[in-house]
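Reagents: none. Just compute today. Amidinotransferase.
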Amino acid sequence: MSLIQSPNTIVMVRPWKFCSNPETSDDNAFQKISSLTKSNTAFNAKEEFNEVVRVLESKTIKVHIFDDFGEKDTPDSVFPNNWFSTHPGGHIAIYPMFSLSRRRERRQDIIEMLKSEYRVQDVIDFSGLEWDNLFLEGTGAMVLDHINRIAYTAKSNRSSEIILERFCSIFHYEPMAFDTEDENGKTVYHTNVMMSIGTKYALICLNMINDDKRRAEVKSRLEESGRVVIDLSFAQINNFAGNTLELTGLNGKKYLVISKVAYESLHSSEIEILSKMVETIPISIPTIELAGGSVRCMMAGIHLSKRK
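Predicted 3D structure written out:
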């Protein structure tokens, strides 16, 4: 049960030509422009990536690393969780992406590695729905409660309810979609910037769910699952406190991977609550966060059985 929500293996993509993607800035309020040169921005992002890997591996978390040398002009490739996900029973999903540049991130070599090292029964490819202007950007668009089979989804142009229903039907999740607004009245572009679900807790900005009834329903479902609900503020979300991922080390320990700026936005009482359930790992990635995502977006969890 412990690995269902919290995998011990992930895929990460090392960026060599990272930058904040101008194609995605219209609806991503978290993006910022770098004051550094292109080459310095790319260099810093690669060094931050390497440090994340170093820290995770020191905690006995297995990391499959792929390099993106930038030949295809894929500035957001460091965030692979948006274009594929894996699921117990040997299932992989491939997703339709809103931005043209992000569609180029999909890589057959990653899928082939998963097939060769893990038991893969089928690959469900939703990407053809891009031609119908329908998009569902993986575990950015959906935050999955793998234990209770619920797909929490903030409605946006990157999370089609039509594909969400198809995904849930095929992968046996219950869809739980809701409308959102940030403090400026803007729709939240990805669910995983406003909420994160661990084995025993959930981090979420409930005030971003703008319908009172739906907000109460989401909170109730999280509490019914037995989790402690930590309600984050708008300011904490702006510092990526919702963009975290719980992983399990090969040593059996649970770790909450969080960026340094996100960790520093948490109150001491919240840190104390989390410390009773998980070891928190703050990692500094200020350059990568310029692209509007944080550490959770960098990690695609592997929920597949290893081949003998």
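The chain has one domain: 2-301.
Action item: order primers for follow-up constructs.
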